[in-house]
Amino acid sequence: MQTTLALSQITKTFGAVRALDAVSLHLAPGERLALLGHNGAGKSTMMKIILGLIDADGGEVQVMGAAPGSAAARRATAYLPENVAFHPALTGLEQIGHYLRLRGEPASKAPALLDRVGLGHAGKRRIGTYSKGMRQRVGLAQALIGRPGLLVLDEPTSGLDPVSRRDFYALLDGLAADGASILLSSHALTEVEARTDRIVILSRGVVVAEGRLEDLRTRAALPVTVQVIPPEGGMAALAEALPGGRPMGAGLRFEVAQAGKLPLLSRIAGLGALVADIEVEPPSLEDIYSHFSRRDGQ
Ligand SMILES: Nc1ncnc2c1ncn2[C@@H]1O[C@H](COP(=O)(O)OP(=O)(O)OP(=O)(O)O)[C@@H](O)[C@H]1O
């Protein structure tokens, strides 16, 4: 398999703290991977090792086949820190022009980069006047310089409103479609559910779960929630015909194992006019996340 990023048995300790313990991870071109984990799980430590900012104590890391921090790896990698900071007195164009020159590219590419992140209209304004979402976009424009093969994004959407988040992920989709690999950390579970290909859950420095969301869902074997709503005034009749549910809002709530879902649905279908509506909710990423984290003693 072609690999953009390969971590093999990485270990890192800070004094008595084992921040990473035999962590292995591979990322293919065009793949979007979400790194999830509680505060202090080891996400930033992993990113710093990938970027070559700190060394691992043991194990092996390869970024595009090169050692992290080497010139080849740095050329191929872009990084967006969680709290991105720019000089407030510079305009967007000046800031990106500066980064372009640092990368050995002409500043004349700045307008196209700002256009790409939806900031073309604000390039001549000082960054001090930008909203948080706009500053995050400047960060992404900076990360796009030189068409990186690997993007490392530390909580890229924290503090962004829902529309800015959607736009941000749409941009990432485009980059991934062009072949860039994306490693992003996040605490916003529901948004990574829809926008990434694979999930890695880190807990106390250990990978406790890894895979496509569907695989994790199957492995966790968590119950499905079925909400049955009676017509107005029909709650008592529904509860009598369908015992075992918990009253919740305007209906009755059932939690059943995957295998019990279809039998329950067919019973409900036989109730005719006693049922006005029905909602089936699979376990959320939050449920799956706490299931795997708890298994690690959290
Ligand atoms: N330079 C350091 N010196 C000592 N301990 C450190 C250092 N850097 C990280 N740690 C410890 O290593 C562990 C992992 O920290 P890390 O910052 O990687 O977690 P994280 O998953 O990024 O957390 P968060 O979601 O809060 O950003 C924590 O216990 C942290 O206190």
Automatic annotation (TrEMBL):
Residues annotated as domain ABC transporter: 5-229
Superkingdom per UniProt: Bacteria
Ranges in a coiled coil: none
Alphabetized GO MF terms: ATP binding
Pfam families: ABC_tran
Transport among keywords: yes
InterPro entries hit by this protein: AAA+_ATPase (IPR003593), ABC_transporter-like_ATP-bd (IPR003439), ABC_transporter-like_CS (IPR017871), ABC_Transporter_VariousFunc (IPR051782), P-loop_NTPase (IPR027417)
Keywords: ATP-binding, Nucleotide-binding, Transport
Database matches in SMART domains: AAA
Protein name: ABC transporter ATP-binding protein
